[in-house]
Amino acid sequence: MTSSYKGNCHCGAFIFTFTTPTPIDTGSPCNCSICSRKAYLWVVPENFQVVKGDEDTTLAKYEFGTMHLAHKFCPTCGISVLARQKDPSRLGGVSVLVNLRTVQDIDLTSITVKPPFNGAAKGDPYKTPAFVPVAGEVAEGATEYHGNCQCGAVAFTLVSPEKITEARECNCSINSRQGGLWTYPATSSITFRGVPDAVTEYTFGNHKTFHGFCKHCGVTVYERFLWEFMDGKTALNIRTIVDGEVDMDGLKIERVDGAAFPPAYVVPT
């Protein structure tokens, strides 16, 4: 039986509908340099229709590598909505992929995540951008972590007094769409490149948290806070840290019920 779905970016500038032959119960990740940073869960839609906004003008477009797949994200809130294949024959006739994180009324905790598609093996290997240099000497026993968006316009070096072994995942309206894994170091321990020039910051609700994403490739890199209890701290998205510097498989993840915090998110219509 055909199932109907509706989805949107966080700010509601772009809203869409689609159908699937059966109810959605799985999502397909990919380990390539952009999908892994955005934590995409892909689903193949049928009868995809835009009901608000325009795919070509409302959404920003980012292409890299072979330039066959256009990743499209909202330039206001930074949420990555879909990917458009220029030559559908390359994906078995599939022309569009929808990021399941943007679909309404989907319980992501109940979704079966398929084994990742090995997109990292396609085309030329990803070249990590140059690391951001830090001033002064690194203290004995400290660990340097290097991170960046996919295109490299935004990057950072974190000098941490301890290894990153834990992360926080939140189910709030923005984080569930971003798919971020967060660590919360002292702001003074982070050296950025491309901030603020290559970054767009998005805030909503209480306007106490600013979500920073690359305006070119749409990867969410950090969160900046005005909350008193977060004074002196900045959140970094662990998914942007260079492969191998964090043991992702061994990471202890704390899941936070941010969706329960007021004000409640109003789903755009």
UniProtKB/TrEMBL annotation:
Pfam families (UniProt xref): GFA
Position of the signal peptide: none
A molecular function (GO) term: metal ion binding
Protein keywords: Metal-binding, Zinc
Source domain of life: Eukaryota
Annotated ranges, domain CENP-V/GFA: 5-127, 145-262
Similarity remark: Belongs to the Gfa family.
PANTHER family linked to this entry: CENP-V_GFA DOMAIN-CONTAINING PROTEIN (PTHR28620:SF1), CENTROMERE PROTEIN V (PTHR28620)
Protein name in the entry: Glutathione-dependent formaldehyde-activating
Species of the source: Mycena chlorophos (Agaric fungus)
